[in-house]
Amino acid sequence: MAITAGAVPDSTAEAAPASVWARVRRWLLPAFALIVLGLLVSHANKVDWAGAWQALKAYSPLLLLAALGLATASHALYGCFDLIGRYHTRHRLPPWETWAIAITSYAFTLNLGSLVGGVATRARLYARSGLDETTIAQIIGISAATNWLGYGVVAGGLFASGAIALPPQAHVPPGTLRMVGVAMLLLAAGYVAACKVWQGRAWRVRRRQIKLPPPDIAVMQLCVSAINWSLMGMAMYLLLGRQVPYGTVLGVLMAASIAGVVMPLPGGIGVLEAVYLALLSGAVPQGRLMGAVLAYRAIYYFLPLAGGLGLYVLLERYAALHPAAAAVPVQDGVSAPVSGK
């Protein structure tokens, strides 16, 4: 899905509820974050930290290198989300620069939150390279849609196949999870069908217009994102020593990702750990489990952030040395010039 048109004024009726919600959210989210942190701190003394440290020291260099390779492949594949946006918007930034901006923003998103990484970092770097606000909004929309559509395909497949089973204490009727999985898969298929039926049509939603991409791009979104989520799960699967079925590890990762969205703490600190401890503590010794989660955070979150910071500096430097003169989308085979920065 892409956002394709310029802003239009909000009505007074729309602006008032938005203003109220903004004030409530300003206090609600920090309060919720403090509650979560308090719970984590209160349970910190119950974690087998000594066992976690022993588990970390027991990892072989070869296994850590394999996990790092999977994490690197996942981050590199995420960069393709913005290349899909480049293909759809037909902007003139080089593919390497588009890809570099995407993986930089992803590293920031994981550690600092989606507003900082997915939106603010992308917006600044693309604007510095000469893209207009409408094109930047399209790229961000394509990237977000790609990520969550792939999530739906993977999670839906796990649920529909029966690879994930809820514990008895969940009191969920049999077959419910399978129906949810089928619904998620149908939603993804419906997205592709909608792109085919309504290709080229635009709808105005509040301040922007929404335009679906062509069906071939929609299929590409599903495939690339699904592979990316699978790589993320495989890295954790290796770190857990293959003691838990891959489908289960991947399912817990999906649950942790949703929990991280619901509880917007920077980097999801504590959320990833809490979800894995809650759902896998009965299958893996707590020390080994916590060691795997800490290793995963270091490999998938912290190391890419260090690389992202360096890449961000290089991109800023490159933009300063190469002021963009024409980075606008192509229309009817002709790219219209834009004044420099």
Structural overview:
The protein has about 350 residues and is mainly α. It has one domain (about 55-320). The chain is about 70% helix and about 5% strand. The protein has eleven helices and five strands; from the N terminus they run E-H-H-H-H-H-H-H-E-E-H-H-H-H-E-E. The protein has helices at about 10-45, 50-60, 60-90, 95-110, 115-130, 135-160, 175-195, 215-240, 245-260, 270-280, 285-320, and strands at about 1-5, 200-205, 210, 330, 335. The strands form two sheets. It has a three-stranded antiparallel β-sheet. It has a two-stranded antiparallel ribbon with strand order 4-5. Helix 3 (about 60-90) crosses helix 6 (about 135-160), helix 6 crosses helix 8 and helix 8 (about 215-240) crosses helix 11 (about 285-320). The chain is globular, with a radius of gyration of 22 Å.
